[in-house]
Amino acid sequence: xxxxxxxxxxxxxxxxxxxxxxxxxxxxxxxxxxxxxxxxxxxxxxxxxxxxxxxxxxxxxxxxxxxxxxxxxxxxxxxxxxxxxxxxxxxxxxxxxxxxxxxxxxxxxxxxxxxxxxx
Length: 119
What we know:
Blueprint: E1 4-10, E2 18-26, E3 32-35, H1 36-41, E4 48-53, E5 59-71, E6 74-83, E7 90-92, H2 93-98, E8 101-104, E9 109-112
Parallel strand pairs: 2-7, 3-6
Antiparallel strand pairs: 1-2, 1-5, 4-5, 5-6, 8-9
């Protein structure tokens, strides 16, 4: 069973421009992945490229930018990867940890912690 959560991706330079979708919570992914067309629709373009390692160990070069990522009543400025048009949106572990959300794998739920860890 997979955990999904509704996430808003907002252009930090123009907060009226937002795309909302259902994201797979992926604790194996560091950053968030969004299909390219949705990022472009809200005015985001790649600010650079980064090499990521895929699940099979192979490297891939991906365009990246910073977006305002909003979920579960909170937000964080996070790196978003420009994914292929048919890619499933992914919510990575950095965004989760930045707002104090932990994954409960036994119950397949997300838990908001009372405070964000500084250590």
